[in-house]
Design brief:
With 252 residues, the chain is an alpha/beta fold. It contains 8 helices and 6 strands. One of its GO terms (molecular function) is methyltransferase activity.
Length: 252
């Protein structure tokens, strides 16, 4: 019997460096973007209140805005929130068992997503709940269009493959969760130019960490990308970019 080999789609080193850069920008840059984390966190709080869950121990990753940590501190819960760059969901979680595990936009860049979900489930106490959110399929259409224009006839891999909602339920079942719930909703953000979008992605650890991504854009390719992005502007000169938030919820 041979061991199952997980394809290396994402570079763990690049992921760690990306997360370190995002943490630095959150701490040092004036008014860094963390709106996606805030939107996810507020949604998670609504879900927790809806099921009337009162966790005593919580594992939390990706809370860039600090919204969830402040919420749980107000309830008196014990929160384990490791630094962004130290979180590796492809390894067992330390400090369990937890009544609740929350992952905000972390699972979209792991090579072994089923394994990461199993680790999250194993870290839960019986009856514990997991909420995992990520940027799902159909996201960033304006950026994808701009990158295709930049590369021309020979498009390079630049953006992450994304999980579709129809496959997420199967992933939860495979990981052993019960009472699986999968849903998605979209958020549209309007940008003045490509540079502002890229800055937002860097602030929020959303840039690509592909193991075999495309080469850096040349100056000419970057100009093509900027032009293609700006060509999608509305009457006010803003470009609408779409982020589809996929939420996976399961219980142990």
């Amino acid at each position: 019997m041979t061991d199952h080999q997980v394809p290396e789609i994402f570079s763990r080193q690049r992921r760690r460096l990306r997360d370190q850069r995002a943490s630095y920008r959150q701490a040092r840059v004036s008014d860094p973007a963390n709106w996606l984390s805030r939107v996810m966190a507020e949604d998670a709080i609504e879900r927790i209140d809806f099921v009337r869950l009162e966790p005593k121990r919580v594992w939390l990753a990706g809370d860039l805005s600090g919204t969830l940590e402040r919420y749980f501190n107000s309830t008196g819960a014990d929160v384990v929130a490791p630094p962004l760059a130290s979180v590796d969901e492809e390894l067992p979680l330390d400090g369990g068992p937890f009544d609740l595990a929350i992952s905000l936009d972390r699972l979209g860049s792991v090579n072994d997503l089923p394994g990461a979900l199993i680790h999250l489930r194993n870290a839960l106490a019986p009856g514990g709940m997991m909420i995992a959110m990520m940027v799902g399929g159909g996201s960033l259409p304006a950026l994808r269009s701009a990158m295709l224009a930049a590369d021309g006839d020979r498009p390079a891999p630049r953006l992450h493959p994304q999980v579709e909602s129809r496959s997420a339920t199967g992933l939860l079942e495979r990981a052993g969760f019960s009472r699986q719930v999968v849903d998605e909703h979209g958020v549209t953000v309007r940008y003045p130019d490509l540079g502002k979008l890229v800055s937002d992605l860097r602030d929020q650890a959303l840039t690509a960490v592909l193991a075999r991504g495309g080469p850096a854009l040349s100056k000419a390719a970057l100009k093509r990308a900027e032009a293609a992005f700006s060509a999608q502007a509305d009457d006010e000169g803003r470009i609408a970019e779409r982020f589809e938030i996929l939420t996976l919820t399961g219980w142990r």
